[in-house]
Amino acid sequence: MLKRMLFAAAVTGLVAGATIPVHASAEAAPSGCFKAAKAKFPTDYKARHVYRKECKAHFRAYRAAQRASKKAAG
Description:
Helix content is 73%, strand content 0%. With 74 residues, it is an all-alpha fold. The radius of gyration is 21 Å and the shape is elongated. It starts with a helix and ends with a helix.
């Protein structure tokens, strides 16, 4: 009986852990734009959205330049 209760508790914990939602998108995570926009404009959603779009565009250009320089060097 005790083994069944422990097994049920373990399974319940695994299921609960697997269903926790992730709030940040995968695209915003490496650039840090989401956190930077949230820090700069904590209350203004529209300004935060515009800032985040500009930040992502700059990050993509920076990443493309890095890849191009690696390709040229190697």
